[in-house]
Specification:
Layout: H1 10-23, H2 29-48, H3 54-70, H4 79-88, H5 96-99, H6 104-111, H7 114-130, H8 137-158, H9 166-180, H10 187-190, H11 192-202, H12 206-213, H13 215-236, H14 250-275
C-alpha cells in the first residue's frame, strides 16, 4: 500500500470545490423550483397537524424508528462487499483504514450509481405503501428511514467510516433529520452540529462526547424530529390544498436529498481526515 500523499490531488481539489458549491448553491431556475417544492412540503406539514389522530400517528412512527435504531439497521451494509468492490476495481484494500489512503477518484468510481439504486428502491417502497392509503403511513415512514439509514451507511463505508459505531450512527441520523426539516437552510450552517461531532470522533473523543450528551436521548430526539417532519409530509399527501407537489414522489425526493448530502459530506470528511484539513470539518 502506497503512502498517503501530503496534498490533495487535482481531482480531490475539484471535489472540494464541488462540495463548497453544494453548500452555497447559486440562484437558478432549478433551485427556485426546488424551493417551491420545499415550501409545498412545509405547507403540507402545517395542514397535516390539523388532521385528527396525527399525534397518535407520530407516536407510532417514533416508536417504530426507535425500534429500527435498536436493530442497528446500518450493520446490514456489508463491509466485505465494499472491500470486494475496491479489489475488483484494482485497489487491494483489506480494511476501512486502508480505504483512507485511496485517491477520492477511486472512491467516486465505486460510488457511481449508488444514488440511483436507492432512489429506485425508495420509489418502489413508496408505491407499495401508497396502495394502503393513510393506514400505510407508519410502516412507510419506518421503511423509508431504514432505507435512507442504509444509504447513508453505504456512503460512509465506501469513504472508510465505521457505521457500527455510535458516533457514526448518530451522524447518519442527523443527516436524515436535517434533510427532512423545513426550508432550504444554507448547508454550511445546517450541518454544523453533525460536522462538529465528526471532528470529535476524528480526534478519538467521539465516544466520550456522545456519552456526555446521552446517546439514547440524542437518538430519541432525532427520531422524534424525523418522525414529525416525515409524518407531516406524508399526511400532506391526502390534503387537497397541497396538490401534486407532495404526491407519490416524496420518497424518491427525500432519498435523493439524503444521498446528495451523504455523498458530499462523507467525501468531504474523507478528504479532511486524509489531509488534516481543519477548514473542511
Amino acid at each position: 500500500m502506497s503512502r498517503t500523499p501530503q496534498h490533495p490531488s487535482a481531482y480531490e481539489l475539484r471535489a472540494l470545490e464541488a462540495v463548497s458549491a453544494w453548500r452555497n448553491p447559486q440562484a437558478s431556475w432549478y433551485r427556485s423550483f426546488r424551493g417551491r417544492i420545499d415550501q409545498a412540503w412545509d405547507m403540507a406539514t402545517d395542514w397535516a397537524k390539523k388532521v385528527p389522530g396525527v399525534e397518535w400517528t407520530i407516536d407510532h412512527v417514533v416508536t417504530g424508528l426507535l425500534e429500527l435504531t435498536n436493530e442497528i439497521s446500518q450493520d446490514s451494509v456489508w463491509l466485505g462487499g465494499v472491500l470486494h468492490d475496491f479489489r475488483e476495481a484494482g485497489s487491494d484494500v483489506q480494511s476501512l483504514d486502508e480505504i483512507r489512503s485511496l485517491d477520492l477518484e477511486v472512491i467516486d468510481r465505486a460510488l457511481d450509481g449508488l444514488e440511483l439504486k436507492y432512489k429506485s428502491l425508495a420509489g418502489a417502497e413508496g408505491a407499495a405503501s401508497g396502495m394502503a392509503g393513510a393506514v400505510g403511513i407508519v410502516p412507510d415512514i419506518v421503511a423509508l428511514v431504514a432505507l435512507n439509514l442504509r444509504a447513508a451507511g453505504e456512503y460512509a463505508t465506501y469513504c472508510g467510516f465505521d457505521v457500527t459505531t455510535r458516533e457514526e450512527r448518530l451522524y447518519a441520523m442527523q443527516i436524515l433529520d436535517l434533510v427532512a426539516g423545513p426550508g432550504d437552510h444554507p448547508k454550511h450552517i445546517a450541518f454544523e452540529p453533525a460536522v462538529r461531532l465528526a471532528k470529535k470522533a476524528a480526534q478519538k473523543q467521539g465516544v466520550q462526547f456522545v456519552e456526555q450528551l446521552g446517546f439514547n436521548e440524542a437518538v430519541e430526539r432525532l427520531a422524534r424530529a424525523i418522525g414529525i417532519h416525515l409524518t407531516g409530509r406524508k399526511l400532506g399527501q391526502v390534503v387537497p390544498v397541497a396538490g401534486a407537489a407532495v404526491g407519490a414522489g416524496l420518497n424518491v425526493l427525500y432519498t435523493a436529498k439524503v444521498c446528495q448530502a451523504a455523498f458530499h459530506l462523507y467525501r468531504e470528511r474523507f478528504l479532511a481526515a486524509k489531509y488534516d484539513l481543519d477548514a473542511a470539518i
